[in-house]
Specification:
With 416 residues, the chain is mainly α. It has 14 helices and four strands. Helix 4 crosses helix 6, helix 5 packs parallel to helix 7 and helix 7 runs antiparallel to helix 8.
Amino acid sequence: MDSCFRRNDRKYNTRVKVQQVFNNIKGDRLIWAIAALLAIFSFLPVYSAASNLVNVGGGNTFSYFIKHFMHLFLGFSIMYGVHKVPYRYFRGLSMVMIPIVLVLLVVTILQGTTIEGANASRWIRIPFVNMSFQTSTLASVVLMVYVARYMSKIKDKEVSFKESILPLWVPVFLVLILILPSNFSTTALIFLMVVILVFLGGYPIQYLGIIIGIGIVSLLLFITVAKAFPDKMPNRIDTWMSRIENFSDGGDTEADYQIEKAKIAIASGELTGVGPGKSTQKNFLPQSSSDFIFAIIIEEYGLIGGFFLMILYMWLLFRIVIVAQKSDTIFGKLLVLGVGIPIVFQAMINMAVAVELFPVTGQTLPLISSGGTSIWMTCLAIGIILSVSAKREEIKDKESEEGIEDNPLEILSEAL
């Protein structure tokens, strides 16, 4: 009898602890659910595609599964911690983080890492923990927060183009210039997202046209300099050009190997897929667990699995817009759009590359692809969104409590 009571007490205590955890989770519950679904869905494709990593780097598939689990665990820990921070603090933090990010990007470039003759200095080694960190992903989140801060500051004010150059565009172009030599696709994505954000923030169209023109001229100048001094950036410009040419000519060349294998994987999946873990192209497709994991997902889960994934990202975009619309400040609205839209946009680019609607870019599938930095920065961005949403809930709860205190009889009569 006593043992029965003890078991019941343990069950009750467990339920209480679980309830306490859920009570501490604030913000949009649907965004939490979408992020969790994406993370859970990622385990089987990553575990399946890990066989390719085993063939290249050794080890066993289970070790890569555990590694992916740890990346997600740390990512969701970041998400939970960030969502508890009042989002108004991110305004000041962005000012502090911009110089730090610039220093990190300079350190990353100075490493001068090359892989098969191509400049691949995108990562820095974190001391003591023996882990690599891609600084450009952190820079993109910090920069979007910084731009949201500035645009909220000048909202409904007449600011000349000259006045906006130093506080807004100098940090933006410094970050882009430091990322461009090793990662054109990320540079282009960040620039596009900044343009969209400042447009949504009410930045004058004529000034925006000037900035886009400066961006194009800067890119052409960079390509000219890189062509003139090829030893400084070996093969990087040629890589970009070959990807664009291979995409546009429609021919089957050696450079099309990744895309061809991805298309074979997609064609093999048909409607329902060949089944979890039964992909054959994962053994031949480079980056099958990261850049081209969408192709493996369709091969194993068919078009149904692919559409399910697309629906989740579209649902996430819808909730991001809802949270932005309900935010109580201009900064909150722009902050949510600034860090949220790039997540969905990156997912669409990754899927478009896999089905050859876009040249190869190297962009991962958020919360699905293996890789710590991408997962952590996506979780950081979602945590910021949830922080804005949590503030709205707090205001709503406070208004509800004040309404009950002011006129309880009226509320009671409405309920009846």
